[in-house]
Amino acid sequence: MNRHTFFIIVRMVAAILLYTIAATSCKKSIFNTPPVTIPQTEGTVTPIGIEQGAATTAIIGVEGGTLQSADGKLKITVPAGAIEESKTFSIQPVSNTNIAGFGQAFRLLPHGNHFSKPISISFVYNTSDLEGTIPEAIGIAYQDDKGVWQGSAGVMDTAAGTLSFSTTHFSDWSLFKSLELFPGSGSVNLNESLDMHVVNYLSDDDLLPLPGDTPKPIASGKNITAKYIREWKVGGGGLINPSGSTAIYTAPSTMPAKNPVAVSVVLNGPGATQYMLVSNIYIGPEGISFRIDNGPWLQCPVPLGAVLVQDIDNIDGAVSSGNNGQVDAAVSLKWTGYPSTGTNIAWGEKFPWFLYAPPGNTAYQHYMIAGNKVVPSPGGIVFSKYSTIAGRYVMGSFYMEKAGKRTITGTSITWTPVKIEGFFKVKRSTL
Fold first, then answer.
1. Into how many domains does the chain fold?
2. In a domain, 175, yes or no
3. H-type helices in 40-168, by residue range?
4. ∠100-102-105 over CA atoms, to 5°?
5. Contact of 28 with 191, CB cutoff 8 Å
6. Which of 144, 179, 320, 412 is least enclosed, having the fewest CB within 10 Å?
7. Is the pLDDT of residue 381 over 50?
């Protein structure tokens, strides 16, 4: 990109940002592979979690009762007869120090009490929590008095999206993955490579299925023993070069018809059982890449990165509408709400927002106009990485089943439905 073209892009980006304020008054992967260490037999000692926010409390009597965390992610159920007198129960959010843990950890009080009957602890999980793993590898863990996390399978209700465990004592608790494919999702440019491997946090004897009632110590992750690997596969484009529990994925030289591509590894379980771990890998350069009605991919640099303005995230840039090198079209993707990784936000009348404005009398937006009514397209934005920290990546995909192609002819405006799909990979701005 020459100096003249760069300043054209910056001017177009600045114009888009000003519009937003007025309206509201990709050689190696970017992901660093975690270090692989050999786990200790008795598990790995980790620090105690730090309190985060206020605790939720309730006085529960001998007749029993329930208490739920403020975010709705954890619920405890005390049966009748579990305690001999009324007690104050509390759920305190804490930082998750579980090496294999994910999501929010919670400190349950009172500590040191052993209940006469088991108390049910129930976590809520989302499908995004399964990135790089499978439901059979998800469990519940508590931190013992030595600082080692002890994991068990729990009882999973896939319809309700809950995982439950019964205990007669309280401690710090979290969900965990006993094994996972690294990275669970990733991104590489054309012809680039990505190192991948399968990590286990329990002993090989406790691989799958997870241990039930007897908790097992969680240790620093190590590559799974090669005998458990049946095969590596890739669907959608590119090549996979496997070597036991590790593999190198190499992206294709041209944009794949399906993006992201799926890299999977099949594991041998007990008997004839098999398990498949999947990682979705986005192919393309940094910026915004999209196409209309399965046409050619348009690749848009975003020189300013992801910019947060008045609680609105902005990814704005410019692109050659004909991919002929001349920058002549503005592209804009915006949303609100500080989404977490894995969040799917449906298109709305105002936000999230998409605009592609090539030269001439047409523009493409995330909605259509039917009569005087704004009709947002089915679809939305799925965030695979999100951060508000400068220099970190914001990444995801977007899809519009019926985006609006707006054409102005004289004094009339016509709307034509089109399909738009794409993805984005940009760094958080330091502005």
1. 3
2. yes
3. none
4. 105
5. no
6. 412
7. yes
